[in-house]
Amino acid sequence: MREISSAIKVGAEAYLARQYRTISIIAIITAVLLGVGIRDPTNQWLGVETGVGFLLGALCSNLAGYIAMYISVRSNIRTARGIMTSLDRGLKIAFRGGIVFGLAVVSMSLLGIAALFMIFNRDPRLLVGFGFGASFAALFAQLGGGIYTKAADMSADLVGKVEANIPEDDPRNPAVIADLVGDNVGDIAGRGADLFESITAENIGAMILGLAPAVYVMFGVNGLLFPLLARGFGLIGTFIGTFFVYSRKNEDPFTSLTRGLVVTGVICAAGFYVLTVLLLNGEMYFFYAALVGIVGAVLVAWVTDYYTSYRQRPTLGIATASESGAAPGIATGLAVGMESTALFIIVIGVAILLAFALGTGFTSVGGTMDLTNPAFQKGLYGTAIATMGMLSVTPMILALDGFGPITDNAGGILEMSGAPEESRAISDRLDSVGNTTKALTKGYGVASAALSAFLLFSAFLEVVGLKGVDLFRPAVFTGALIGAMLIFFFSSLAIKAVGSTAAVMILEIRRQFKEIPGIMEGTAKADYSRCIDISTKAALRNMIYPSLLIVISPIVVGVILGPEAAGGLLMVGTMVGVLMALFMNNVGAALDNAKKYIEAGHLGGKGSLVHAATVIGDTLGDPLKDTAGPSLHVVVKLLNTITLAVAPLFLLALLH
Amino acid sequence: MREISSAIKVGAEAYLARQYRTISIIAIITAVLLGVGIRDPTNQWLGVETGVGFLLGALCSNLAGYIAMYISVRSNIRTARGIMTSLDRGLKIAFRGGIVFGLAVVSMSLLGIAALFMIFNRDPRLLVGFGFGASFAALFAQLGGGIYTKAADMSADLVGKVEANIPEDDPRNPAVIADLVGDNVGDIAGRGADLFESITAENIGAMILGLAPAVYVMFGVNGLLFPLLARGFGLIGTFIGTFFVYSRKNEDPFTSLTRGLVVTGVICAAGFYVLTVLLLNGEMYFFYAALVGIVGAVLVAWVTDYYTSYRQRPTLGIATASESGAAPGIATGLAVGMESTALFIIVIGVAILLAFALGTGFTSVGGTMDLTNPAFQKGLYGTAIATMGMLSVTPMILALDGFGPITDNAGGILEMSGAPEESRAISDRLDSVGNTTKALTKGYGVASAALSAFLLFSAFLEVVGLKGVDLFRPAVFTGALIGAMLIFFFSSLAIKAVGSTAAVMILEIRRQFKEIPGIMEGTAKADYSRCIDISTKAALRNMIYPSLLIVISPIVVGVILGPEAAGGLLMVGTMVGVLMALFMNNVGAALDNAKKYIEAGHLGGKGSLVHAATVIGDTLGDPLKDTAGPSLHVVVKLLNTITLAVAPLFLLALLH
């Protein structure tokens, strides 16, 4: 077990080291451009502060990802050992690994923002660079990790299971360690960077909204501190919630994780009550807005579970349709993914409208509805507080998310080291819970991306001095069309990157099977590290082009078509990004679970034609749910932070 | 041959009769609500005119679809006979069937609009009901036809080819006639209704823009007549272009069809020149705008061909990826479909911006950029003329589109009647050309939907008295999110409708194979008509729910969240609709052609594992490219005409 775990550790560290090296070079160039090269005509925002903030944001994001990976590669073997003792012990160790991860990511963001806020003379607008740096690093982390993990998964399955006919997680497969490394760099470091970015963007956006005259006159600097203290309560709530995660005799592990989340949510709600009384003059409407956010988080998780769990009708429909073949099964899967967006969007839409109305105190707004209207400013602060509410439970959500890959790794370690059957049964049980929590946290990731993006819009409009984004103007309409198209184009590149990285790995695995004598008999060892090395290089190479597309396009559109067109690009890009992310995440999860349903012995079970059909669906869903989908969460936020960071430049636009 | 052709004829007529009956009932209720039940607070637009126009629009659309089907079911047998003589003869007959179809659809629209324009005292704003009726009928026709044709196709393949192991188009298969009927009701009657709606919406939208003060003061009623006369030139151009479609010895049929299209395009361009001189005071900028539209149509066709033809890299990539299995092949297909939106959107975006700039005469616009600005009004008229340019070649495009199903049917008739091998080789050659033209006309359908929708936006804003659609207002943002989501939800319902209709048919086909003795030996005949009857009923039942979703949602949003939110819904819904339509059309076409590439003998050819993988991809692509995708063209326009028709109602909105 030690041997395997240390191979995973070495591989994950090698991957992250190389990834951070790649990011560093691009980040330093960008920081220099931001800080020095690009002149801000209004001399207001761009400058040394933005450049320094950018570097610090990227650094903190990477550090958070690194800590997360550091913890998870050390928790997996302990979890494996714990599982051999009891379910409760395995559950607790895996979950506590996740908690360290969650607390580290969130604290790092809070620390960075609070420090910069003090250094930059309490002007939250100067923190924009930090947010841009965080989303910049997050895109590379999530996309690169996503490409790596799925390419390793696909190629290990394809050559191992299909061609060489050996089972999953078999030590003879040269890609098996790369596959386990992938869980750590994709799901752990990638998702960590993703949510680091969400909470960072939310904090900065909410603080900027606190600067709006109508809000500032009411709460003063307290309105800026509120988001930071709310985040602190989330950390405390998570810490306490941790103690409620334990498995009573034969209790479903999912139930005990839910208990931890509920406790955290209740403590966060209490925290918002206290903060509203202390900082917001007891204006209870804002407390209700926070509740809207917390309830929204629960509903989003519920919708995601309904559409992706095999206890529910949609995924069962995929399994049934697969009886007629892979194509009807996949078609049903695509339909389920598309349908899943409906309830989700209704939840988000109602949350935004309700929080806005609460922010205005349900008074009639009157006058022109734009940023100059005091009621409008208060309404926006209401949506900011709902976003804080939703994001307050983030550390706990991250713990649940980390739980998945840690148990997955533990299962792999047990399998490869030939642990007894009963331990593996326990690890399978934990693993299936991990699959569910991973799907739920992705839904949460999308919702938080949507709400934080909405906060950043107003900051953008304020910088460029716009009152709104009028879609009816041809330049804005075109910018918006381009924003929507970018999401499709990026997704296409992400999916293709998995394919081309996998192609490189497949050749290497085939080569090893052919050239290393005794590998199939188990007398010679496969060269894991070479496999990891090759796929690391390929994944990092393939992530650069799509990332640059997202960084450069909004700048080009803003400079040519003007700031309002850039606003159209980022708003419609955000909407389409949210929809496509949901669609791809849920298609993948539903297809995966339809396969699991068959494997649980239904409709013919493992080895039947139906099973073969669902395996095709599952393989197709992988790059959608673990590469393109989660990367889109980051893309949505990156589009917003980048336009915000370079916004002053757009005032020089050709068509302005 | 006569027997088969008459079975197709009877089936298609039975389907359309039942479909029109279903539509009639819903249409009459809607017309009464429009004309009487709904009160217009401003007493300006809604009323008897809208109700009457609505009914007439639906009637003309259905009539155009019926004529198209009437011609095509009579051309198929003649084409089959022609093919037995020579390639040239088959090509000419099939194409001329298509031409009658194209001329009939376009003339019907021109006739209806011109007549109503005279009756309604030359006020184009009263024509809105006609446009709504046309799009209403088109949605049912395209969606119902699309569900029917793909369900028949899928179930015939699944039970016939896979279970009973008989070849395609085998007369023993009870669903074989239903499959051929499907080509006529889906591709012919459906696409006819789709483009009937595009040109109708374009004419009405352009005429309303001609009413804008800055335009009206320049051109008077000539600015309103221009769109009608431009349409007339398109008819003349197509008529002349027809004579250039003939196949010289061994000439590729595609070349001769292209020649016909080029001649039509040149005549249309000349027509625009003449009309600009005569009606628009020789303001050549508007002529250039028309050229932008014509060139745009060519570029759109080129982009579609690049992404879906198996002579090009993208589709070849799918074939290569399928060597690793169905899942990598389909993943690559999805990536190709997503990527294909990029160039397309750039063409459309540049066309809109360029035409707008030409409309303003490339002068500086100045002042606020909204509908009250004279330069803005002229710019919009420029985009209207570019749309006219793009749509001027519609009759010829429709002829190319009709060409596909007619040759497909002819091939089926030849196959079933045991024609000699060489005739079938010719029919295969024509059939593959038909596949290409079908894909191109779909790209054209999306482009025309996007541009005509853009024209309708301004009409909508004028009615509700808005200057723009500000995405930054929470209600508008939410409306826009809902618009985007509706497209995903509708697509999901359309895909599922194919699956559930196919499930009903599969049961019936299996029953016939089991219960009719001698069916497999060819001694007893399959009960084709029962199969047609069952699938007709199921398809029509399954089309109602998605259609009502699209009709009712914008009204609900407009009434609750106000007119500007409805504007957000329709604009973002249009953008996402265009992207998803492109994505689904091109995924389907590329996967289909990847299979054809393998079947042409590459990478192992028919019967290989690669072939099996591409067959799965092709089957998956069918409901995307022939049901959901084309229905979205119509949805985009319907969202626009419905909000326009009931717009006055939104002034009573709760949150206005």
What can you tell me about this protein's structure?
The structure is a homodimer of 656-residue chains. By secondary structure, the first copy, chain A, is mainly α. The first copy, chain A, is 83% helix and 0% strand. Chain A is built from 18 helices and no strands. The first copy, chain A, has helices at residues 2-37, 48-85, 87-119, 128-164, 176-210, 213-219, 222-242, 253-279, 284-308, 313-321, 326-359, 374-392, 394-416, 421-464, 474-515, 528-561, 563-599, 609-650. In chain A, helix 4 runs antiparallel to helix 18 (609-650). Chain A is globular. The first copy, chain A, starts with a helix and ends in a 6-residue tail after the last helix. The mean pLDDT of chain A is 89. At the A-B interface, helix 4, helix 11, helix 14, helix 15 and helix 17 of A face helix 4, helix 11, helix 14, helix 15 and helix 17 of B.
Q: How are the SSEs ordered, and which strands pair?
A:
The structure is a homodimer of 656-residue chains.
Chain A: H1 2-37, H2 48-85, H3 87-119, H4 128-164, H5 176-210, H6 213-219, H7 222-242, H8 253-279, H9 284-308, H10 313-321, H11 326-359, H12 374-392, H13 394-416, H14 421-464, H15 474-515, H16 528-561, H17 563-599, H18 609-650
Give a short overview.
The structure is a homodimer of 656-residue chains. Helices cover 83% and strands 0% of the residues of chain A.
Question: In which range does the helix fraction of chain A lie?
Answer: over 70%
- Give the overall form of chain A: globular
Share in β-strands of chain A: under 5%
Largest interface: A-B, 78 and 79 residues
pLDDT < 50 runs, ≥5 residues of chain A: none
Oligomer: homodimer
Taken in chain order, the helices and strands of chain A follow as HHHHHHHHHHHHHHHHHH
Query: What's the mean pLDDT score of chain A?
Result: 89
Biggest sheet of chain A, in brief?
Answer: none
Count, helices of chain A: 18
What does the radius of gyration of chain A come to?
A: 24 Å
> What structural class results from the helix and strand content of chain A?
mainly alpha
